[in-house]
Write a structure and sequence with these properties.
The structure is a homodimer of 158-residue chains. Chain A is α+β, with helices and mostly antiparallel strands and 158 residues long. Chain A has helices at residues 5-20, 26-51, 61-77, 115-132, and strands at 83-86, 91-96, 137-142, 149-155. Chains A and B meet through helix 1, helix 2 and helix 3 of A and helix 1, helix 2 and helix 3 of B. Chains A, B: It is found in: Endoplasmic reticulum; Golgi apparatus, cis-Golgi network.
Chain lengths: 158, 158
């Protein structure tokens, strides 16, 4: 079965729709990335609510991040994050070696410049979920070799 | 787990996005429904390709419809169609007693007029999947009592 496919294909349609109307200027591109990030944020918050209805509280920040890497990621992408690293000072790097939303893109270097558009929604998704858990963060992403992808989470101390 | 939630929440964001820009006139509403239907169509085609990669051929039209009601519906909505009826003359009625994409709406009658907007994508989804199986169709939907929903498929003989 292709369990992650409905989400993946719908995400792709959303991208196409948002970018079709765009004029291609840098400002417009920036606005689109922001829109996608906000949509991701809301979806992340909504998902978090449903996923944690019956979950016990988390004991610390690392525990929260593990939840994002396992339960949350699996719910959306049907796989876990492959690697989680932290500097123990509020920065976490979540690596997905086969990020589903990049799967449609070919592995070539020429597609790297397109990647922000494919990553913005998911950055928002993580930020929204963390926010729902009371953790304020900044989330960025980068692709080095397709379709592997790293999400960097910087916790904002309140 | 809330396995259908990522798709459901993303679909809701897409609706909000498309309708936010709309002026609310009837023509605009119609265009939005058409856009959603086309997006559904493409997602339906894409999903179908992935789902039938290893599937044997279908023996007849009814067999195709059963596949839509079971495998296809489960992939997208994590449940099967509750009831399938046919007049054996090319009309099929697929009833879902708890249609996921209506789940956010309250059960009151006052929301019935909103329902085309919530159903258009899925009409396209079914039409796209059937098209991928070589079956040309017209798909419409109606809600009588929320969140139950009937999709009517009219097969177009070629």
């Amino acid at each position: 079965m292709a369990d992650e496919a409905p989400f993946q294909l719908l995400h792709y349609e959303l991208l196409q729709y948002i970018y079709k109307a765009a004029d291609g200027g840098d400002a417009e591109q920036g606005r689109n990335v922001t829109k996608l990030e906000s949509m991701g944020f809301r979806v992340g918050q909504g998902l978090l609510e449903r996923l944690t209805k019956d979950t016990a509280r988390f004991k610390d920040e690392l525990d929260v991040m593990k939840f994002i890497c396992k339960d949350f990621w699996t719910c959306v992408f049907k796989k876990q994050i492959d690697n989680l690293r932290t500097n123990h000072q509020g920065i976490y790097v979540l690596q997905d070696n086969a990020f589903r939303l990049l799967a449609q893109l070919s592995a070539g270097k020429q597609y790297l410049e397109l990647s922000p558009k494919y990553l913005a929604f998911t950055c928002g998704l993580v930020r929204g979920a963390l926010c729902g858990l009371g953790v304020k963060s900044i989330v960025t992403a980068e692709v080095s070799v397709m379709p592997a992808c790293k999400f960097q989470v910087m916790i904002q101390k309140m």
